[in-house]
Amino acid sequence: MNSPNKSLQKNAAIVAEALSEYIESSGTKQAPVIHQEKLEVLIERLGLEQHITEGDLSGEKLRAFVTDYLDATTRLHHPGFLAHQVAVPNLTGALGSWIDGSTNNAMAIYEMGPAASSIEYFMINWMLSKIGWTTVSSDRQLDPDSSHGGGVLTHGGSLANLTALLAARSARVPGFWKSGNPGNLVILVPEQSHYSMKRAAAILGLGEDNCLSLPADQDGRVLPAEMESQINELASRGKRVMAIVANACGTAAGLYDPLPEIAAICRQHNIWLHVDAAHGGGALVSAQLRHLLKGIELADSVVWDAHKMMCTPTVCAAVLVRDHRHLDHAFEQEASYLLHAKDQPGFDFISRTVECTKAGLGLRLFMTVAAMGESGLAAHVEGLVEQARSAAKLIQDRAGFEVAITPETNIVCFRLGDDDSQQLEIRRQLLEHGDYYISSTLYRNIRWLRLVFMNPLTSLDDIRQLLDDIEEIHSHLV
Ligand SMILES: Cc1ncc(COP(=O)(O)O)c(C=O)c1O
Q1: Of ligand 1's atoms, which has the minimum distance to the CA of residue 280?
Q2: Which of 75, 102, 293, 303 shows the greatest Cβ crowding within 10 Å of its Cβ?
Q3: What is the arithmetic mean of pLDDT over 79-103?
Q4: Longest dimension (CA), the chain
Q5: Residues with CB under 6 A from ligand 1
Q6: What pLDDT, in 10s, does the model give residues 334-346?
Q7: Is pTM, for the whole model, over 0.90?
Q8: Which residues are annotated with the PTM N6-(pyridoxal phosphate)lysine (predicted)?
Q9: How far does residue 254's CA lie from ligand 1's centre (Å)?
Q10: Distance CA 144, CA 136 (A)
Q11: How far is the CA of 282 from the centre of ligand 1 (A)?
């Protein structure tokens, strides 16, 4: 029998070979970008029952399984992948996920993963500095007199948004944790905000009905000039605004809210400002695009997903606060087996997160940035935005097509004709053909087709072909 180490090397070589063929065949469009077979068919084809009964998934059995598995995946490495805000992962970063899985250092406490914790600490500081916030060495991290920034990596932007709003609740309504909801709290969010905001309001005990929309212009950007009267009107009804959320950028069309103006009103009313930069935070790494996030440093908290524009394998989201104390005090939990006096050569993230066992998410982010280099990463983000802007021009110039709004980031909303249900039918047929995988969204109460440029391999010729295909499908609908 092989030693575990020999098996690892043999099995890793099998997986590496299969993955390498998969990435090559995806990039060269030798297989559909999406092909959704029925769940029962896949359970059967992948031999799941047989594999768990037999055990010993290695060698040729492993090769067969991985080949079948890869065959049934949605191919993000395919140039036709234009659907969602999920990175085409950097493969060195993906090795970070593998190392993390193999070492299993549950690093929320330093002693359970010194290397992983140190890397998370370093990458959080890197992100804080991109925002323009103060970073410090670990020994001063919990200094109650120091108001430097802080943060933690969480399993996704939705959890990060919840955590940021929890920090807001703890900072602005300190008695809530013990005594519960005083009953008059609301949060104000952009009408284009991600659904995780409403969920967070419900989970935090505010109630979804107390997550209200901010005034917006016709494109859905927050209108700071009308915020003042909304806040005053709420106050006259005895309501208290716990937090205001701004998008940088919104999910549907990728628009950035005017952060300096929103921040000024929040400061004036002592309201917590949370900036959801889960998607658009990627622009912080680019000198050319940084202006889109002007004023972000005035926020109290920011969420920034690395697994969106930053090529990092899912998941890896950062919740960042201007003053670390707000996150450090957000959870008031006792856990005597973890939190007690001890020698502490590093930093425990556990008090900043919902999670107890936490993966070493920083490693995949660090290895991605280290593989690409900061300038390579900036060029990548700029390239995605450029792809979207060029595609929008191309679409706009085609007869019958309409682009919803000039893209500010890598998202393009467009449609052919003016029938909402036809847009959904076009998308359905595209996915069925399997050459393109695109999404669809409601924006300004209209149904649009939506392209999210995540793959540097997607060319303008791909978009031309996509438009031809859409015209062809549409011609049979009208
Ligand atoms: C603006 C925004 N915020 C939050 C999220 C949620 O992030 P995650 O999917 O990592 O939970 C998304 C996801 O698309 C988003 O676009």
Answers
A1: 1
A2: 303
A3: 98
A4: 76
A5: 85, 156-158, 161, 194, 196, 251, 276, 278-279, 305, 317
A6: 666 666 667 788 8
A7: yes
A8: 308
A9: 12
A10: 13
A11: 13
